[in-house]
Specification:
This protein is mainly α and 155 residues long. The chain is 86% helix and 0% strand. The mean pLDDT is 88.
Amino acid sequence: MILGGMGALVARWARLYADYKAVSGGVTYVHLAGILLGGGLAVSADRAALLWSPGAAWTFRGVHRWVLAGLGITFLSGVAMLLSDLHTYLTATVFWIKMALIVLLIANGFLKLRTEAALDRGGERSWRWLRRTAIASMTLWFATLLAGTVLMSSS
């Protein structure tokens, strides 16, 4: 009975999303705003990490809270988009590629947080890892954006 109720709720949401451009446009805007917030700050911090030297002071404390907030906004709006057309998204290869990229992005984020903590403790050797995670982060953010663009244009 619960699954039947959930199915009806998802169907109602799909109709609302399809019938009202303000709803679908609003969800898309929130999704892109989350990407801009999280990805923009992450790429900016990554760029700075690539330009700095091991002797420089690390001043990006707290930036990843905002990155995580952006990812959270993007996740919630992404779920809303997914529920608007389950069949299309769940059967699309590019959807699963995007999900894999997001998992890698989150895993890299955890590595980056550990590396930043090591830098705070004076771990000079952590600079190499910071640069690696910065390059991976930038690559993953742009690859995820590409996969999302392909997914949106194909659905």
